[in-house]
Amino acid sequence: MSIKPINVGLLGIGTVGGGTFTVLQRNAEEITRRAGRPIRITMVADRNLDVARKITEGSCRVTDDAFAVVSDPEVDIVIELIGGYGVAKELVMKAIANGKHVVTANKALLATHGNEIFEAAQDKGVMVAFEAAIAGGIPIVKAVREGLTANRIEWVAGIINGTTNFILSEMRDKGLAFDVVLKEAQRLGYAEADPTFDIEGVDAAHKITLLASLAFGIPVQFDKAHIEGISNLDAIDIQYAEQLGYRIKLLGISKRTEEGVELRVHPTLIPTKRLIANVEGAMNAVLVQGDAVGPTLYYGKGAGAEPTASAVIADLVDVTRMHTADPENRVPHLAFQPNAMSDLKILSMDEVQTSYYLRLRVQDRTGALADITRILADEQISIGAVIQKEPGEGEAQADLILLTHQTREKRINAAIAKIEGLGVVAGKMTKLRMEELGK
Question: pTM score, two decimals?
Answer without folding.
Answer: 0.96
